[in-house]
Amino acid sequence: MAAKIQMLNETVLTEAAECLRVMAHPVRLRIADILMQGRVTVGTIAKLCQLPPSQASEHLRLMKACGLLDAAREGRAVYYRISNPSLPGLIRCIRSTCGKAAG
Questions:
Q1: What is the C-alpha separation between 103 and 35, in angstroms, rounded?
Q2: Model pLDDT, residue 3
Q3: Where are the domains of the chain?
Q4: What are the tens digits of pLDDT across the range 72-89?
Q5: What is the CATH code for 20-84?
């Protein structure tokens, strides 16, 4: 007798596909990699990614809208951090599988 196949429901798959679509950009993957080290300001992310702050903010906005990041304002600075516990796993997967091919 064959084992019963369990499948994710359509809502979960749709949400996952949207988040993967958002993360399917090298800059957003780099931002997630940076944020795995802790909370960081928009200005620092822009500098590390070699982007104008407005472009960095747009990438961060998309990631936040997907529920991957949280933002907190402290004075004039806005700090971002990873809020979705699955995001570090995605980056670790990329490091372990794709990083080996590049190294």
A1: 22
A2: 84
A3: 20-84
A4: 999 999 999 999 998 998
A5: 1.10.10.10
DSSP string, the chain: -PPPPP---HHHHHHHHHHHHHH-SHHHHHHHHHHTTS-EEHHHHHHHHT--HHHHHHHHHHHHHTTSEEEEEETTEEEEEE--TTHHHHHHHHHHHHHHHH-
Beta carbons of 30 and 46 less than 8 angstroms apart: no
Radius of gyration, CA atoms only, the chain? 16
Burial class (CB in 10 A: 0-12, 13-18, 19+), 100: exposed
Question: What band does 9 get if pLDDT is binned at 50, 70 and 90?
Answer: very high
Tell me how far apart the alpha carbons of residues 29 and 23 are, in angstroms, rounded to a whole number. Answer: 6
Note the pLDDT of residue 2. 72
pLDDT digits (tens, 9 = 90+) for 30-67: 999 999 999 999 999 999 999 999 999 999 999 999 99
